[in-house]
Predict the structure.
Amino acid sequence: MGKPRYTRIKEHIIRRIDTSRWKAGDRVPSENALATEFGVSRMTARRALQELGEEGLLVRTQGLGSFVADARPMSSMLTVRSIDEEITARGHQHRAEVLLLEAVPAERTNALLLGLGEGAEIFHSILLHWENTLPLQYEERFVNPRFGPEYLSQDFTVTTPSHYLSSISPLTEADQSIEAVTVDSEIGRALQIKRGEPCLKLNRRTWCQRGIVNISTLIYPGSRYRIGGHLNF
Amino acid sequence: MGKPRYTRIKEHIIRRIDTSRWKAGDRVPSENALATEFGVSRMTARRALQELGEEGLLVRTQGLGSFVADARPMSSMLTVRSIDEEITARGHQHRAEVLLLEAVPAERTNALLLGLGEGAEIFHSILLHWENTLPLQYEERFVNPRFGPEYLSQDFTVTTPSHYLSSISPLTEADQSIEAVTVDSEIGRALQIKRGEPCLKLNRRTWCQRGIVNISTLIYPGSRYRIGGHLNF
DNA sequence: TGTCTATACTTGTATATACAAGTAGACTGT
DNA sequence: ACAGTCTACTTGTATATACAAGTATAGACA
């Protein structure tokens, strides 16, 4: 029913920041000052300041005080969801077609990145993901057998590589990039697009604690897909 | 020097999750249980659990307990920085060329989105951003005069539209999308790319508390630019 | 069988208190 | 003039306590 009291204090401070009454760099009242002003204990006032600090609106330094943070820079984020979730969330039907599923010797690929020796085997898969009757994503992966030993025996018309890999080992990190490319005729045929049509290409490396789990490239036709994101500063 | 005690408890829990001793869905000990186990007060144990909840490793529900969260889905983020920061961060020279800077009547544009009446004026700018001797970004903006009244008199060879707008009014939200496109000959000539070369197109709408501040589209040649991001799950 | 209640547990909020640790400025003594 | 110290204020950590509120289960009762 009634909001907790520390939210009142937070709202009070946010209001003063939004209306520019307190500007970037200004000192906001101390925990004790807010406590007496609002008639609460210091720990309650503290909680308000602390959460605002975690949310990035304030910068707090021991011994000095709490200050209004600089306006956040325009840099922001784009989210990339798992393809099957995204399609089913739209109420459409997702189907995965396995174009290739094999073990290849390490020297033929970028296995060095995976931290394996020369002769080692590496798993390689190519899937095509359909939304209803149109192909939407061409997915190629190289998987480290250490972290996904049963990869080749999975039925990817039921699960997806992404689900399998994240169920096997807790993923801790990833880096990725996105670029605009044109694709060769083989991929273009699979995706049923015209020659020269621009595509989004998403390269991703995923890590668990002990090494790289997989390297994947996802390709979307530019005319059928956009990556979207909403962001609260 | 010595870490605070609640971090010990956090590390203890994280260890058990990372080594799969506690798996997704498992219940972790209650605040009171941890308190007696570690010989601390409940509020200290609570802090450990609470922070882990905020970090997404645990899901806490009142009355039930704290549970290990599902492995985070593969969805992740791509960061988009301000173009001038990015170029200068690479140690290169950034230069902005103003191709157009004007006020246009609202009906000619998507001014409805900006929440303005028919006859209102709207600011329109096109800039080309150079990295050393190569054009890297074609930037087109429609700006709401209410939130950037001095927009037309800015010298964008010194500042950037992004800097000006975020200095004027505190930006609270944005949504954006990215797609792969080919561009018309005018933009292609400006960017010095061949006909049909794929480009990344980034559409963004930025909001402050009281309405849409601006609508912008950024276009990068696919061969010269990729959006990158690193992520800790 | 089904429903309501009591109870035991959980997390959430709030207070009062104590001490630790970092910062700035004033005040000291040389 | 300068260096060191002391003080006042800040945030950080930790405890003990109390009550509120949500959940599930066991048991009483119709």
In short: Chain B touches chain A through 51 residues (CB under 8 Å). Residues 4-6, 40-44, 47, 61-65 of chain B lie near DNA strand D (CB under 10 Å from a C1'). The CA atoms of residues 147 and 210 of chain B lie 9 Å apart.
